[in-house]
Write a structure and sequence with these properties.
Number of domains: 2
Radius of gyration: 23 Å
Strand content: 25-35%
Strand order of the largest sheet: 1-2-3-5-4
Distance between the termini: 40 Å
Number of helices: 2
C-alpha cells in the first residue's frame, strides 16, 4: 500500500540500537524490516509499505513487520506502453572549479585520516604510509574528476 511515514523511533535492546518502530499515516504500527527496506528513510517520505503479521514463538504475541520501499515525490504511477520513448538522461552538471578543489582537498584529508587509522590498527607499517597514501589520493582525485567529466 502507498502511504507516508508518520513516525520513526529508534529501538534499543540491552542498551544497543535494535531497529525502528514505525507508525504510518493510516495508523498502522510495527517494526521496520531493515534488511528488506530502502536505506535513508525519513519521517514524511512517501513509501510502498508491505505489512506482515508476526507471532512471537515464545510469548505468542502478534506484531507487524513493515517493509518500506521509497517512492520518489515526482513519481505519479506512470503508465508505460510499447510506444513511449525512454526518458531523457538527466542533464550533466559540472561543479565549479573552487568547489571541485575543495572537494578534492577534503577527500585527501579523509584519505590521510583513513591511512593513519590503518597504521594505528597495525594494518600497515610506518614505511607503507606514504605509498599507500599516494595511491589512495590518486584514486580519490581520479574518481572525483571522472564524476565531473562532460
Amino acid at each position: 500500500m502507498r502511504t507516508k511515514i508518520k513516525t520513526m523511533e529508534p529501538k534499543t535492546y540491552q542498551g544497543k540500537p535494535n531497529g525502528y518502530k514505525i507508525v504510518l499515516e493510516d495508523g498502522t504500527e510495527g517494526n521496520l524490516v531493515e534488511k528488506d527496506s530502502d536505506k535513508g528513510l525519513r519521517v514524511g517520505d512517501t513509501v510502498e509499505a508491505t505489512v506482515t503479521d508476526y507471532v512471537s514463538k515464545s510469548k505468542g504475541t502478534h506484531s507487524n513487520l513493515i517493509t518500506l520501499k521509497l517512492i520518489p515525490n515526482n513519481v505519479q504511477n506512470p503508465v508505460q506502453t510499447g510506444t513511449n520513448p525512454p526518458p531523457p538522461p538527466p542533464p550533466k552538471v559540472q561543479v565549479p572549479t573552487t568547489a571541485l578543489q575543495t572537494l578534492k582537498a577534503q577527500s585527501v584529508v579523509k584519505g590521510m585520516e583513513f591511512i593513519i587509522s590503518m597504521f594505528i590498527a597495525d594494518k600497515i607499517t610506518w614505511d607503507q604510509i606514504q605509498p599507500k597514501f599516494k595511491e589512495l589520493s590518486g584514486y580519490l582525485i581520479d574518481g572525483i574528476e571522472e564524476c565531473n567529466k562532460e
